[in-house]
Amino acid sequence: MSVLNEPLANPSRVRGTWRLLAHLGSPIERSELEEMLSPLSVAGDVRDEEDNEVSSEVSHRNRIRKVINEMVKMGVVVEEGSMLYLAEDVVPLDGAEWDDFLVNAITRRIFDLHNDENHDLVLLISWFYSQDAYAPMTWEQIALALDEQTDSNRLGCKNKTRFEQFEYWANYLGFTWTLTINRQKRLVVDPTNHLSKLLPGLFVGKDTLRYSDIQSELASLSPLFENGWARKALSEKYSIDNPEPLLLSSSTAFAWYRLQEGGVIELLRKSDADMFLFPEASGVLSGFSEITWKRM
């Protein structure tokens, strides 16, 4: 299982469980945590989604139990015997913005090559980043694209329930966002937020870098971009990326353009360096060879 496959483990439940454990500040019995998060006094007529049992302590607690299980598998929560506590680097620091802190902690874990529990979510986000950033997609369009570009498994996004879980997590972690056009909800390919967090790791000791160096370093920092481990895995299996090495995907270009419009970076052209092609919404390809980070 993973958060993509477990609809009960949505971001709001994970966030609420994490905040409670952070406030408690010490290990707690699993049964006690389950009681605090899901008291029987508010159970009502609850039936378990899988076995459809009549409301009972087992079926009622099974909901929050599944959330905790996913947090343990993710590595956010540590379980020792009957005790639960937050992993050391998931305990919020003094003065930290709590929501950003949790998002960053979860992102590190799902990207970790040594914990493949949520790699299905990472692969699906990376596939989405290979799509046209200038054409937000409905669920029906995403399903059709997955059918055409992958296989019958659709990278785990087999139905609308799985898609909604993907949408919840991709939006919560800052990899995508949703808008409504003509009463149709569409998911937007937008790595801008993710890319902005990687700038300090890209521009180490320098304010301006050649894009050839940026691209190779970017692949080591995030699996979602060109040549990252998730993108490479998808390309090897499904040939999703353009084979032209100097042509960026529209999602990567879109993020850099948005950062430039926000005054965060500047795209530059230098004649003595390889010119990378950045797709625009109009279909025009603009060439840039360097980027300056303005360190705002």
Write a concise keyword list for the protein shown above.
single chain, 296 residues, alpha+beta, three-stranded antiparallel sheet, globular
Care to describe what's here?
- A hairpin with a 2-residue loop joins strand 2 and strand 3.
- The protein has 296 residues and is of the alpha+beta class.
- It is built from eleven helices and ten strands.
- The protein has helices spanning 11-24, 30-37, 57-74, 98-111, 119-129, 139-149, 160-172, 192-202, 211-221, 229-238, 250-261, and strands at 28-29, 77-80, 83-86, 176-181, 184-189, 208-210, 265-268, 276-279, 285-288, 290-293.
- The longest helix is centred in the N-terminal third of the chain and has 18 residues, at 57-74.
- The strands form four sheets. It has a three-stranded antiparallel sheet. Strands 6-10-7 form a three-stranded antiparallel sheet. A two-stranded antiparallel ribbon has the order 4-5.
